[in-house]
Amino acid sequence: MRIGIIGAGHMGSALARGLVRSGVRPSDITISDPDRRKLEPLRRMGMKTAGDNRRAVLDSDLTFLAVKPDVVERVLARVRRELEGTLLVSLAAGVSTEFLERRSGARVVRVMPNLCAEVGEMASCYCLGRRATPEDEELVRSILSSIGITFRVDEDLMNAVTGLSGSGPAYIYLVLKAMRDAGRELGLPEEIALKLAAQTVKGAGKMLLEDGRSPEKLLDEVCTPGGTTVEGIAVLRRKKVEDAIKDAIKAAAKRAAELSR
Ligand SMILES: NC(=O)c1ccc[n+]([C@@H]2O[C@H](COP(=O)([O-])OP(=O)(O)OC[C@H]3O[C@@H](n4cnc5c(N)ncnc54)[C@H](OP(=O)(O)O)[C@@H]3O)[C@@H](O)[C@H]2O)c1
Known about the structure:
single chain
């Protein structure tokens, strides 16, 4: 299967690298971007690269759209003829399947990905446009599943997904930064503190995903009465960290809704 990607920025490049990591042959990917410098490392990996977006569409069985939401309309106008009747998979936040269908003439699947695509650990959701077929869904689902986990949702939930997992890596990086800094202030070498923090986040997530215990149950298991963890958790509760995280996700989802069309 040949895959086209329009836009070699953060998300397009992460997707391309994740696909290669999952076993897609680099030469089966054509990625386009006006900026040659962004394409160069991908070309060196063996991908086909182009300055002209039409190449990404014409050389592929399906095309991912990984440009910023505000340039989607302009990009589609230039490749409309090539896209007509093909499968278009948009990663653009807030751009509806109806908007994409009307401006591309393509069968559309809309995805909210995240940057962890690069390491094959993406959390994503997708919804289908009116013209997308069950075969289209199967194909997109299998591609998304090869680089992480994915769920189908109704389109009106895509803004919630954007706030939670689309923007999610950023919240975790903030937590990791704080864990690193605290470790350093307590005397640990910075590199060790950061790796301890990152592995702890990875391990905690893995336990949840692999064994069906709830976060409440796991929290209970780490918090021995009278032990050390309860002291830390008490501080987080006093500072209302749970409320702050919920508010952050809701603010990002609200912003996604404001930007939607
Ligand atoms: N980054 C994330 O974590 C994330 C998560 C979920 C969804 N997304 C979605 O992914 C999309 C891309 O986001 P991003 O963060 O990757 O943005 P980005 O880093 O700015 O990447 C967009 C790329 O598209 C290029 N571009 C601009 N005009 C183009 C054109 N006419 N034809 C082809 N390429 C063109 C840009 O080049 P220039 O820089 O030269 O303009 C840039 O390299 C967005 O719609 C966003 O909503 C991103």
